[in-house]
Amino acid sequence: MEKLGKKIPGKRAWKVGDLVDTELDQLIHAANTLPEQRDAWLNFTPEGFGAPRFNSRMKAVADELNRGFGFCKISGLNIEGYDEDMLYRLYWVI
């Protein structure tokens, strides 16, 4: 990343973490796995979703939030075509 012609080194450069197709597929699968009753969502753990690659990405995000710069940008999720219920599910899983 450059600023005024000089490269910004290391983690100070804000980089985008794009979700890859496998991670998106696993996110959607995990969202569909949630039961109808939203109260029951509290009983789900990341391991229960059967989404290892997506879980790995979310662990890296959590690590950056807790031990890094305190923010992450995740891109690659096109929300068009999802109804309100599915959007709740997707964001809950994230």
Notable characteristics:
single chain, 94 residues, mainly alpha, two-stranded antiparallel ribbon, two-stranded parallel sheet, 4 strands, globular
Report on the architecture of this protein.
It is a single chain. The chain has helices spanning 21-33, 52-67, 84-93; strands at 2-3, 6-7, 17-18, 74-75. The chain is mainly alpha-helical and 94 residues long. It has a two-stranded antiparallel ribbon. A hairpin with a 2-residue loop joins strand 1 (2-3) and strand 2 (6-7). The mean pLDDT is 84.
Shape: globular
Strand content: 5-15%
How many extended strands? 4
**Low-confidence blocks of residues:** none
- Helix amount: 40-55%
Class from secondary-structure proportions: mainly alpha
- Round the mean pLDDT to the nearest integer and report it: 84
Q: Numbering strands along the chain, what is their spatial order in the largest sheet?
A: 1-2
Distance between the termini: 27 Å
Count of helical stretches: 3
- Sheet bearing the most strands, described? 2 strands, antiparallel
Rounded to the nearest angstrom, the radius of gyration is: 16 Å
Question: What is the ordering of alpha helices and beta strands?
Answer: EEEHHEH
Please outline the helices and strands:
Layout (H helix, E strand, L loop, with lengths): L1 E2 L2 E2 L9 E2 L2 H13 L18 H16 L6 E2 L8 H10 L1
Parallel strand pairs: 3-4
Antiparallel strand pairs: 1-2
Helix pairs in contact: 1-2, 1-3
